[in-house]
Design brief:
326 residues, alpha/beta, Quinone Oxidoreductase, Chain A, domain 1, Rossmann fold, 6-stranded parallel beta sheet, 16 strands, 30% helix, globular
Amino acid sequence: MQVHAFVFEKAGPPTVMKWRIKELGDPGAGEALIRHTAIGLNYIDTYHRSGLYPIEFPSGIGLEAAGVVEAVGKGVTHVKKGDRVAYGSGPLGAYSEARIMPAATLIKLPKGVDDETAAAMMLKGMTVEYLINRTYKVKKDEWVLFQAAAGGVGLIAGQWLNAIGAHAIGTAGGPKKVKLAKEHGYEQVIDYKKTQNISDRVRKLTKGEGVPVVFDSVGKDTWTQSLDSLQPRGMMVSFGNSSGPVSDFSLGELASRGSLYITRPSLMAYTATRQELEKSARALFKMVTNGDVKIEINQRYALKEAPQAHRDLEGRKTTGSTILIP
């Protein structure tokens, strides 16, 4: 079976991704052949492509997609030919028309979740689940700060936090993104293009106390402001580097700011076992099917246009979820 897929042999700009024909055989033991119907675009894809997160070459790219099972290998019982499935934590290679992959990573889709929605939400939605349910268990009436509120993860997080009764403060750049974040559950949204000192604004909103937790996927540009927004013994959850990685940070700063905690979690670590993966997916499906979280796909590209999708994502021209269509 011949399919088209993106591969790359060195790190670099979007042009390093090459559209190639690949030959697929039959799935082996524990594997499944998936024909993709929709593929998710995520910021972590740009980290793999650029070299920020080192990988072995040559490599495919992309961690998230939905599709239909075409065949399964020996020992695979939880999915079968014809099942609609999705995945959100790799392995790399989702930017393809079809692929053979470990069946253990696949989740069957419920009737209330269509393929495009699944491709737009698995990685981002399960990220929100582990962040606010397990990395830091957000409680009703707690104030939290979520950087990049108008992004794909941010829009899901705002709705989820609103549903559990938390007071979510978001940050976004420009009036359109601020409006979008407010429409998705954030009680307050700080326009970082207008407000120089985010932490001062956070403390005013929380009557001087600060927040017990900050969720930050931006990295370098927001690092200090995020730390300064925390209460004593608050937790800094750094789960991305869209503005670049944080460097030259002294652990002593955690003490001087009030004995802060810091963690650098990943979806892969929080869905490392089949039990954890299924539990996270079930929680996400519940939030979506009961209407508490709506997944809005704001951009669609043909799969062949993935390099342009990367340019737009890195240029902050996208909001919410983006999918690639084979």
